Amino acid sequence: MTRPPQGPATARGPRARRVSRTALAAATSLALGLGGLLLTACGSDDDDNDAGGSAKLAVAGACLPQPPTPDIAAGYLSVRNSGDAADRLTSVTTALSDRVTMHTTEGTAMRRVSEFEVPAGGELDLARGGDHLMLEKLTRQPKVGETVTLTLHFAKSPAIEVSVPVKPTSYQPEV
Ligand SMILES: [Cu+2]
User: How far, in Å, is the centroid of ligand 1 from the Cα of 39?
Assistant: First the structure.
């Protein structure tokens, strides 16, 4: 913002391209710098908190669309962290499935991951088309209107038991 103007924004050709690349680099370093500042601010705020350095987790918006196939289902939910330390969702267990895995979506492909980060003061969002839970080897086929109990296990925080409503197959979670 304090930099002198580097030529007309409408200019075309190599010079304009160079300018916009410089602007991009400036924006990137600004973003990184801001991130550092925020971290520093959080660190000094810790002194005002009771214990400091712990995650405070709450689950919202959980749903499980009724699976179109009898042996696999997807699950969605959000984990909000109002604490001042990050945590990680490391596993999920349920009587409905013998094998719950965590998937991330890359383009049109899903990739299994070993854990999901729950950032301090932030949120882990599991949603259609993004990160999600896969419930494989279903012990029974869940039906709309039922409630399924999932237990979320975290790296640091105590486990959270969630009652998850079974929704229609095409249900779009409201986040
Ligand atoms: Cu998946």
Answer: 33
Class assignment of domain 57-167?
Answer: mainly beta
pTM for this entry: 0.69
Q: What pLDDT, in 10s, does the model give residues 97-151?
A: 999 999 999 999 999 999 999 999 999 999 999 999 999 999 999 999 999 999 9
Short-list 140, 151, 137, CA closest to 92:
151
Ligand 1 centroid distance, CA of 104 (Å): 7
Q: How far is the CA of 64 from the centre of ligand 1 (A)?
A: 13
What is the CA(72)–ligand 1 centre distance, in A? 9
